[in-house]
């Protein structure tokens, strides 16, 4: 029970990596706030999971592009559960398009969710964690935070931003007893990539030395490590969970 009695907030928790992380945290003894967009399946998922492993699973609607909603998510969590011990800033969207065809609106939307949203969540979490003198924030980056890839300019820019945002926040937060890390998944079998063209998917699989897509649970296990005290001397890093993608050719 690596997260016994810990309170965890996970954004984008209704689907894919987020949902797998909600379930793993509950299995490890945590209370979890499953946060996602209003109207998502998050409320139904949380209702199914609440109490199933002993801990609470509460749904809280939050769009990470809205500062007031993010701040409210953390205020309500601390009021109801008493603390915020770990956060997975996981909400994100994809975006594949040649740059000369990308509008300002499309570019800025990807940055606003995938990068600015991570900052909004971290800021709200830090306000609480500084008061506690402890906490672990984990941001979702990507292999595309370390490498570029054609037709993903906004996504790659956002995820590269997350990697360096994580370093800067970690330096700021360390003296206050708070750790900040990121996870860099390779291509993971979730709804985010379900619509990719089959030939592209096969080419992407071939870029992973382990020869397959990752599973959401494999990323969730990385979050568990970074959220728990097992990683008590780890801060400012990006843990790559990528089947060897970034190891080189
Ligand atoms: P999913 O689409 O399965 O899950 C992402 C969740 O985030 C969805 O429930 C989505 O809602 C939600 N979301 C979207 N926009 C917002 C918002 N503004 N506020 C709050 N929640 C929002 O994708 P994954 O599980 O694959 O992705 C999780 C994270 O992992 C993302 O940050 C992604 O970039 C990253 N990642 C994924 C990889 C992959 O190959 N799958 C590879 C590398 C990184 P809705 O479904 O309604 O959009």
From TrEMBL:
Gene3D superfamilies (alphabetical): NAD(P)-binding Rossmann-like Domain (3.40.50.720)
Signal sequence, start to end: none
Record NCBIfam families: PRK07231.1 (NF005559)
Family: Belongs to the short-chain dehydrogenases/reductases (SDR) family.
Protein name: SDR family NAD(P)-dependent oxidoreductase
Source organism per UniProt: Yanghanlia caeni
Source organism phylogeny: Bacteria, Pseudomonadati, Pseudomonadota, Betaproteobacteria, Burkholderiales
